Amino acid sequence: MRSSVAISLVGLLATSTIAPAQDQTVTVGPWTIATSFKADKFDNCTMSRSVSDLDITFLRTRDGLLLLLDSSKWKLDRGKAYDVTLAAGTRAIQVKALAENKSVTIPLADRSLNERMRIADVLEVRGEGATLRVPLDGSMAALGRLETCFEKNNRTGVDSNPF
């Protein structure tokens, strides 16, 4: 009995090490960190949570950090760029939010703001019609884990010159 369990366990471990990379998730406080692969190649890492009717995702790609906000209540003009102000702690910046029907994508290129998001309680997204309050509790550990996810997986697929 023990030997069959041990053989099954060894088989499972061997299969998981030779199997193609799969999407992986881990929970850090209220955030879920996920690693995504496309065609067995690393694509991105995400940090997400939902609050009320707002789905919040921080997306880390090779191009940088993005904030995706989604709500089933929204009716936005697809393709329109909305002016918004992002505020975390004492830092506020003007950015464009690119809209889909029920979501927006906001680039987070300002390093100072990104650092303040790690210690702030809330990220305010101030638009013309409303101010959204994105809770950042647990963000210091979660943003650190998001960056670790990206760095670890981004290096894995890089071919290096052996000479």
Considering DSSP H and I runs of 4 or more, what fraction of the residues is helical? 25-40%
The description of the largest β-sheet is: 10 strands, antiparallel
Summed up, the helix count is 3
Summarize model confidence as the mean pLDDT. 85
Pick out the low-confidence regions: 1-21
Shape, please?
globular
Total number of strands: 10
| Sequence of secondary-structure elements | HEEEEEEEEHEEH
Approximately how much beta-strand content do the residues carry?
A: 35-45%
* Widest beta sheet: strand line-up: 1-2-3-4-5-8-7-6-9-10
Distance between the termini: 51 Å
**Structural class label:** alpha+beta
Rg value: 19 Å
Explain the overall architecture.
By secondary structure, the chain is an alpha+beta fold. It contains 3 helices and 10 strands; from the N terminus they run αββββββββαββα. It is 27% helix and 44% strand. A 10-stranded antiparallel beta sheet has the order 1-2-3-4-5-8-7-6-9-10. The longest helix is centred in the C-terminal third of the chain and has 18 residues.
Characteristic terms for this protein:
27% helix, single chain, alpha+beta, 3 helices, 163 residues, 10-stranded antiparallel sheet
